[in-house]
Amino acid sequence: MDPCELITSKDIDAIAVVTPVWTHFDLARAAIENGKHVFVEKPFTSSVEQGERLIGLAARKRVKIMVDHTFLFTGAVKKIRQLVDEGTLGRLYYYDSTRVNLGLFQHDVNVIWDLAPHDLSIMDYLLKDKPVAVIATGEKHLNGHEDVAYITIYCEGGTIAHINVNWLSPVKVRTTLLGGEKRMVVWNDLEADEKVRVYDRGVSISNVDSVHDLLVSYRSGDMWSPRVDQGEALAAEARHFVDCIQNDLPPLNDGEAGLRVVKLLEASDQSLRGRGTPVQI
């Protein structure tokens, strides 16, 4: 069964909103006011204020909101989350993601609102440290919206994240790196096999009494590629939504998760307008 058919089947009182982002608020609000659970395409809403209103309305109507953060249900992201939770990587130093291709240009949003929700939702799921500030830079070249952009996110605990999104790349790239104190991960979503690779590599420093006496040692151990589930992510996401409705469970990617992403998108836009001015979260 098609995932959208599963969500909108006669046994599930829910609506799927798979429309441009500027329509999400009105359509989702109408559905929630009529007692419908709502599955909303990413990004959740066009503003933080809209997201907060929908979350409050859904709580009063006792219905569920799920935001389409499909990548959280891929085998690769689930495996990386397992590695993080088990402490395999150690304390995370950085999250670095590149999501670039030639087109498809959007007419209502810039490249950040179009592509970055994927990476921001993955980052939100994998990193335990809360974002505290955002710096975004970008440029418009063709249709009045930024088509190349770079986002830097500072998190509590010292973790830093960087996201590169681009509609003007000659090649398609979907690569994410996570650097940890113990190990590092490379996820290439375009690889047919070995999408996730774990590297036992790192740097150790001793004798920190004086910067001139630092002893730096480099560790270069094995690389391995853990097995990842090859199941279809959107189908798994739809089944999760149905299960949450039937068993009154909070969705993994609920309205609050969607709102956290919108907060980062809104802060990125504000920083863009200020030519890279830092924006506190």
Q: Could you characterize the architecture of this molecule?
A:
The chain folds into two domains: 3-70 and 233-254, NAD(P)-binding Rossmann-like Domain (Rossmann fold); 72-198 and 266-280, Dihydrodipicolinate Reductase, domain 2. Helices cover 33% and strands 32% of the residues. The protein has helices at residues 3-7, 21-33, 48-61, 75-85, 111-126, 233-247, 255-273, and strands at residues 14-17, 37-40, 65-67, 92-102, 131-140, 146-155, 160-166, 168-180, 184-188, 196-206, 215-224, 279-280. Strands 11-10-9-8-4-7-6-5-12 form a nine-stranded mixed β-sheet. A hairpin with a 3-residue loop joins strand 8 (168-180) and strand 9. The model has no long low-confidence stretch (mean pLDDT 93).
**Strand coverage percent:** 25-35%
Number of helices: 7
CATH class of the largest domain: Alpha Beta
Residue-averaged pLDDT, rounded? 93
The ordered string of helix (H) and strand (E) elements is HEHEHEHEHEEEEEEEHHE
Write the CATH homologous superfamily of the largest domain.
Dihydrodipicolinate Reductase, domain 2
- How is the biggest beta sheet arranged? 9 strands, mixed
